[in-house]
Amino acid sequence: MSIIGHKKTQDFFTRVIDCGILSHAYAFIGSDHIGKETLAIWIASLLLKTVPEKVSRHLDVRIIRRQYDEKNNRFKRDIAVAEMRDLLRFASQSSFQPHGWKVVIIVEAERLNVEAGNAILKILEEPPERTVFFLLYQNTAAILPTIHSRVQTINLARVSEQELSAGLLDLEFALEDIQAIIPYAQGLPGQAITWLREPDIFIAFKNNAVALAGLMSASITQRFGAVEPWFVAAKDEGGVDYVVERLEEWRQVFYSWLNSQTSPISLNQNGAILDELEKTILALRRNAHPPLAVQSFLLSFP
């Protein structure tokens, strides 16, 4: 497993582990694809004295994430309290290694429902010995304040183009392919790797960017019409999560325009739209009405 960027964070954890001053809980905050889970697994490998590839199967590790709903062929919307029961047992047990560490990684911690959040809070209030928690999330506004106040926060910044390019070369991707995706990846290693491994996804992103650029000069009626198919598809493709995924695709396009000389909107307009986009995604995850929330967001376009 290779980590691209985040050298200061790696150095920090190497020091605190060596000095024996590890906190009981950390929050890694950053965009999707920035490397939150990769970093947490790497730290776990240091604590457990194993290689990162073996961490997910280690007896002293629990990785909690949304479960897949086989019946509806989609991921569940939330992390439910039922998934906390095993964690409560795990937290109360000793590690399998004598005087060893236990590690808990919660992916998309903002997806904890109220009951699951309260279960985690109870553990964090009285943390078990030699157990470290890593809560991974994008936005502090989406997490219970009582949980956020009990973790040490580490914000993960986007990786520079130079670091990203060097890291991708180390993974033996072709230089020509790297140069093609770097301007669009916006410092997200996971996104870059996905595009390089699955070029069709990158082509779809570029097509999406062209369509979104067209909406910048479209009428309100045309903009509303462009997103109407989202709400039809959402009925069979995951409900509000499907709509959020479409907005997250747009977010990546808007970020790619920040440093682009061919952006169809100004830097100030782009920043204002991104602010509204984050508010819209958060509102949708808090059960806002999808068509109304998205239509309101479209009104922020110039």
Automatic annotation (TrEMBL):
It holds the Pfam family DNA_pol3_delta2. Coiled coil: none annotated. InterPro entries: DNA_Rep/Repair_Clamp_Loader, P-loop_NTPase. It comes from the Bacteria. SUPFAM superfamilies: P-loop containing nucleoside triphosphate hydrolases. GO terms for biological process: DNA-templated DNA replication. This is DNA polymerase III subunit delta. It comes from Candidatus Magasanikbacteria bacterium RIFCSPLOWO2_01_FULL_40_15.
